[in-house]
Amino acid sequence: MAVLYGAGALFIGGLALSLAPKVTDPGGWVLVLVFAGVAAFFVRSAWKDWHAPDDRSLAPAPRPAPSRVPESSANPVRLENQIAALADAGLILAPGRTIEELLQSWAREDYESDPWNLLLFMYGSEVEAEPWGRAFCERGWNFDMECLEQAGDYARAFQQLVRITGQPDLVTDLSDDFSPDAETAVIRYTVMGQARTLKARVDNDWADPEAVEAFVRDLEAAAKGPSRFWAADNGQASVLFFVSKAEAAKINALSPGLLQRYIGA
After folding, report:
1. Burial of 170 (0-12, 13-18, 19+ CB in 10 A)
2. 35, 15 contact by CB (below 8 A)
3. Label partner for 154 (CA 20 to 30 A): which of 85, 174, 205, 248?
4. 97-125 b/e with 16+ CB inside 10 Å = b?
């Protein structure tokens, strides 16, 4: 839009300048002043648009919907009971998150008629209201592999993987040079004091599964404790959780097959 505003300013300003030498009466000067005012408006609009912050930093990415519509269960489970059971298995609501915020996204009936699946999906999502960026669960993230648009998007996605480990210092110096027009992208980071470079194949806006797997393996090797990456299937996305084998077993006891290891052991 800044370019369009700038072009408009040049055009209208040019008209004002071309008319000014020919003006011989007050009415003509009024027209010149009107053109000059419009040109000034376009210049101001171009400046504001050019200096506006990137919208990507102000609002969250659109929340992907679950890969299936919530289904009615013969045995509905109260939302509060689901939250308590997941907390017992190690997945707790992030500090400050509330049931009311969960209900901003889905109706209570949806959570209770499709127990565990929908709530786990939301545990990988964020509150759908300002201020943006408030995750429902500090150990969960919905990783949609179709997430790349520009340089830095691999780093943003991989930083979310670091976040859910609860060990933010595992990886430093994370960057990438992704471009949809290139054949490969280079991802750089430091883990356990070692500089690492990954080459990712570019497939439109899809993340390279091999690069993702390599990064996940590095995280699991560096992380302290028994937790690993487990996933709940969500179509082209995976709702990832960083939990131990014992915690995953508790979650799967609620509904068999809810979580699977994200990568092979």
Report:
1. buried
2. yes
3. 248
4. beeebbeebbeeebbbbbbbbbbbbbbbb
Q: What are phi and psi of 220, to 5 degrees?
A: -65, -35
* 51 class by beta-carbon count within 10 Å (0-12 exposed, 13-18 middle, 19+ buried): exposed
Domain-wise residue ranges, the chain: 2-52, 56-261
9-62 confidence digits (pLDDT tens): 455 555 545 655 665 665 555 454 545 554 555 445 544 444 443 444 334 444
226 within 8 A of 265, measured Cβ to Cβ: no
The residue with tokens 């390279």 is 208
> What is the rounded average pLDDT for all residues in the chain?
84
Are 176 and 152 in contact by the 8 Å Cβ rule? The answer is yes
One-letter amino acid for residue 211 of the chain: A
Quote the pLDDT of residue 75. 84
pLDDT in tens, 143-184: 999 999 999 999 999 999 999 999 999 999 999 999 999 999
List all residues 6 or more positions away from 168 whose beta carbon is below 8 Å from its beta carbon: 162
